[in-house]
Amino acid sequence: MKVGNAKYSWLIEGGCRLDSSFHMSEGRVYNKLIKNAPLGYKSLNQVTSELFNGIRFKRYYVSNEELGIPFMGSSDMLKSSFDGLKYISKKLSKNVESLWIKEGWTLISCSGTIGNTVYANADFVNKTASQHILRVVPNGQLPSGYIYSYLSSKYGYALLTQGTYGAVIQHIEPHHIENLPIPILPESKQQEIHNLIVEASNLRVEANKLLREATSYFEKEYKVEGFTKVFSKKVSDLSFSWASYNNNLECDKIESSFQEQMTIGSVATKCFAPPLFKHIYLSKNNGHPFLTGAELTKFIKKYYRWLSPRGVKNINDYKVEKGTLLLYKSGTTDGGILGNVFIADDILHGACLSDHVIRISTDDLRISYWLFAFLKSSSGIKLLQKMATGSMIPFITPDRLLQVKFPKPNDKLDWVFEKIEGYIEKSSESHRKELKAIDLVEKEIESWQK
What we know:
With 450 residues, the protein is of the alpha+beta class. Helix content is 34%, strand content 16%. It has 14 helices and 20 strands.
């Protein structure tokens, strides 16, 4: 139970509301706390040159990358990489200059799931974003990394999502947050936080570059353009299904281009998805950290839930180890999560994942990293999606996943291994630095309350 005193001025500001949920909300409490910061505060509009959403426009999507501009929605901005982004037409998209993202901005999801934030690094440059992403453009009065860290902290998030007076906001417009208070911390602390975010940002760019270099080898060797919608095939050549997407010719061409091939089943020591279970969540100190499949796609993986072993017969079936390949087994094939593969790093090691995630383990990390790099390529994704079944929501079973073919490791094995190893190390370090920066903000604010 929370207990507090409400001032008469609060009642006037809140339209004479008397319910405690309004006056004791986190947004209300944090707003008061920040405005009493020892060194004072500045409003968001004082430390930014612009606060704006992108313009609304009719979107003309194109499949040819040369004719289009990468376009991201509010969920895309949180992903660990931007593979699979849609492209809007260069020719038909008007005033596209106002949609460009620039390095150093803080991006906020302002529609649907609101309040998610991301710091725009070099990978965001030359990409456009929808009007559902609010852009925070710093003017130099406060370091951009500090502004981002504060807005990403529990204090900034509460003020973004609940407003300064505790009301629940369904959609964020610039005028909703222009007066959001930002505490002034000692300059040395601001700079320390900013430096951590810049370092994390650069590490993320380096990590994604290493991943692209590894997958580019498979893109060059095995990529097949186009998609044949109408074709004929002998009955004897059909796979486990008569559905066209389970027998597409492009996948046949990819497989025939392998000089030597293997199946996932020939190298996997484990390939399974845990059974359904009852989700019982506990406090942080009593449970096992848990992530859903959707949270797995995000670059910064924050744990909001901790799983109780009481609802699970064997909790170890749900934990993953570093180097384990992870595949979300259901979803759509047109830009959805189906066919996307991930790899457990230091951050995911020991965490529990949803029963919708298939785990693939081998007894050789070099093979796991080789397989991961191939499955991240466009050819690998096509072969994975070929194994899907289901009329409404396609899904992949572990048994069918074991039948997926991939090129046998060759003299590029060590090179690919080093690239993926570097990708994992830099991604983990980037993750740690960003969370450390946010933690420094929260601890500094908490120190005022002691």
